[in-house]
């Protein structure tokens, strides 16, 4: 039996977390295969083949995977699942949409957000927005799990896996892709950025969010993040929400600007190496996870800090 990793990509390149998922996949000591689904995606399959630890890339190139929908992806995985004892993907909104469907089709448990693989069926995982860690054991014959990328090292890029082309299953006809809106940015991707500057509802408007945080992020070469309250208020796009129901980040440096530090937010950033918080309330919970805290009005502190950075 082998271990199958579902590779996520943006049509141009593989998602960074795929390399972390490959490291996790090696825990079973079995051959690791990487599944790349795309359209005109030869380059992505070639990138995948360079990941150390991958023995085979399974490449499916078909029109329906130009904009993959979860039904097509899960049906494709299900068509080959009998060859695999373990199915893994990095924890993301994409994998959280796909893997539970595969688990349901196979009548096994879906194990999400794994932080540590302790044996071939025993895992440490986060629950209650990351406030509780629990160890679970699965007796299912097939293990299906998502892993938190930041908890596993990135596999090196010195591999030479063989690429095997496989046939696409018939497209699912009841759901179809209509459109997608993406934010184009020169900034680093949020989930792989070394520095993240996040803002909260206290920024007050989309204009102030941009005017205050963009220059700081620019100087730090940082990605922008936001709380759910800031997203819900329309100050920041949904894609940059950090937290339990957003993106999980673990940068070297995380700036929380006017962020209260609700557990649902900290669930997505508390693995950051250094956390800097600016908040005018000295009792704000964000200071409990901050390495450096500044009790100040962000409208004074952020421009001062930005100007001080060369
Ligand atoms: P607030 O809670 O309003 O805090 C604003 C902070 O700014 C306060 O601490 C205040 O002291 C400070 N402040 C105000 N003015 C200034 C100023 N001038 N200068 C400096 N500081 C100032 N939230 C997430 O972020 N991510 C998630 O993924 C997420 N998922 C959720 C899932 C569920 C099921 C639920 C129920 C909630 C979720 N939330 C999530 C929401 C979360 O509970 C909080 O409501 C949210 O994080 C609060 O955002 P905030 O800190 O921007 O706003």
Automatic annotation (TrEMBL):
The lineage of its organism: Bacteria, Pseudomonadati, Pseudomonadota, Gammaproteobacteria, Thiotrichales. Its cofactor is FAD. Signal peptide: none annotated. SMART domains: ETF (SM00893). Keywords: Electron transport, FAD, Flavoprotein, Transport. Residues 3-187 form the Electron transfer flavoprotein alpha/beta-subunit N-terminal domain. It comes from Methylophaga aminisulfidivorans MP. This is Electron transfer flavoprotein subunit alpha. FAD binds at residues 201, 227-228, 241-245, 258-265, 279.
């Amino acid at each position: 039996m082998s271990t199958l990793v579902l590779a996520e990509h943006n049509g141009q390149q593989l998602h960074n977390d795929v390399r972390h998922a490959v490291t996790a996949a090696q825990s079973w000591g079995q051959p690791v295969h990487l599944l790349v689904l795309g359209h005109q995606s030869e380059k992505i399959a070639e990138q995948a083949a360079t990941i150390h630890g991958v023995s085979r890339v399974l490449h499916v190139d078909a029109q329906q995977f130009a904009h993959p929908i979860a039904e097509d992806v899960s049906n494709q995985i299900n068509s080959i699942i009998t060859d695999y004892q373990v199915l893994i993907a990095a924890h993301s909104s994409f994998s959280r949409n796909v893997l539970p469907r595969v688990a349901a089709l196979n009548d096994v448990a879906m194990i999400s957000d794994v932080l540590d693989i302790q044996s071939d069926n025993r895992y440490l995982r986060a629950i209650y927005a990351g406030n509780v860690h629990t160890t679970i054991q699965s007796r299912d014959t097939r293990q299906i799990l998502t892993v938190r990328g930041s908890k596993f090292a990135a596999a090196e890029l010195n591999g030479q896996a063989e690429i095997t082309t496989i046939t696409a299953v018939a497209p699912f006809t009841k759901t179809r892709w209509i459109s997608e809106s993406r934010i184009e940015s020169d900034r680093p991707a949020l989930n792989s950025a070394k520095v993240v500057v996040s803002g909260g509802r206290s920024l007050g408007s989309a204009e102030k969010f941009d005017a205050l945080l963009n220059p700081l992020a620019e100087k730090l070469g940082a990605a922008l993040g936001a709380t759910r309250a800031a997203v819900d208020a329309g100050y920041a796009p949904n894609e940059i929400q950090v937290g339990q129901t957003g993106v999980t980040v673990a940068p070297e440096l995380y700036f929380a600007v006017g962020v209260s530090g609700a557990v649902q937010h900290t669930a997505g950033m508390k693995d950051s190496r250094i956390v800097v918080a600016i908040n005018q309330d000295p009792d704000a919970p964000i200071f409990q996870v901050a390495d450096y805290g500044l009790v100040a009005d962000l409208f004074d502190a952020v421009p001062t800090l930005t100007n001080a950075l060369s």
